[in-house]
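User: Round two. Same drill as before: sequence, then structure, for each protein.

Assistant: Same drill it is. First protein:
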Amino acid sequence: MRSVLPALLALALPLSPALADHQEPFVPVFETNFPDPFILPHEGGFLAYATNAEGGAANVQMARSPDLVTWEFMREGDKLHDAMPDLPPWAREGWTWAPEVIAHQDRFLLYFTAKERSSGLQCVGVATGSDARGPFTSSASEPLVCQREIGGTIDPAVFRDADGKMYLYYKNDGNHPDFARTTEIYAQTLSEDGQALVGEPVALLSNDQPWEEHVIESPTMVKHGDEYVMFFSANHFGWERDQRLSPYAMGYSRCEGPLGPCVDAPENPILYSYNDRRLGCLSGPGHQAVFEVGERQFIVFHAHIATSGCRRTTRGRQMYVAPLLWQDGAPKIGVSLRPGNSEEDGQ
């Protein structure tokens, strides 16, 4: 792993496909349905978590890799491994989305979205485990947060600042068809153990830009030097029959602190769909997360599985991993890691 990553980083290029000079800057590292991915470096390798598997095969499906470019599903015999095989009493199976995991104190915390039995809305919970692979468990009778009056709550993301304080970011599900209202990204301080919220939520961003349309979601707070940067995704995540490409895209904002205020970057969106004879195909990139390997930062995201002609399929969303770079204080996404790179290639 140590030899291949510098070679891949050497391929870094500016994000905009219009400026790219490398063939197919973005290709998946895991060519299967693995939506809303999150990667945790762990014990010299990498664990990935994703939204529930098809057919109820796992509430939280997992994959593993020794080097970020070679991935395989985690299994138990002929079944998928499930990081959270039993949901808390408030949650209904089949709607477990966007898990994220952090090591904290003497355990691991899994933040997740699930459908609340009583309201039928998506809400956010937290579960604990002694192992990063699970099983994660929670006996909570209520979600950690659920904004029922404004559509529910989805897409939890946790950020630990240099002083050790932790913050939870989430989005009200206002684009739920029964609500059809403004969506906002919120921040709230977490308790010392990471399992409760402290104080009042603060709204940081809303879908107030044309490219965002009716939804902003998937917050990811990152600290670069002394600056706080929040990545997010916006617009409709899907790829409908009447759409040439998915409108889903990724942007970022600059924040004065972990609780804001935040201001959208004028160059948004910074990653978006394209179909180009030379650069290839990317449809609906988003739901990003950022992780560190040593002093390097990487970004993981999903995009829709497409045909060889960049046409819509119904096979889901696959995982991409790329270096996260910085130029004059602004984030840039490098050429993605890809299957076929080996340690020998990096020597």
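Second protein:
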Amino acid sequence: MKELLRTTDPTIIAFAMALLRGEGIDCFEMDVNMSVLEGGIGIFPRRILVHEDRLIQAERVMADNEIPLGRP
């Protein structure tokens, strides 16, 4: 699995995952439970991972929908 997206905005995560699933790209959301540690203030970014074979296709889906990847 490779990191596709990193953001603190939960709406971007939800939208990106819906787009990926709509394209048939399996994805996994990481760091969901960090909100317990941070108290829900949104300082820790969440990540979306995709299989490395589908990374380029997933990046294209994000670019087509103007979603910044936010990776370091």
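The helical segments are 10-22, 34-38, 55-64.

User: Perfect.
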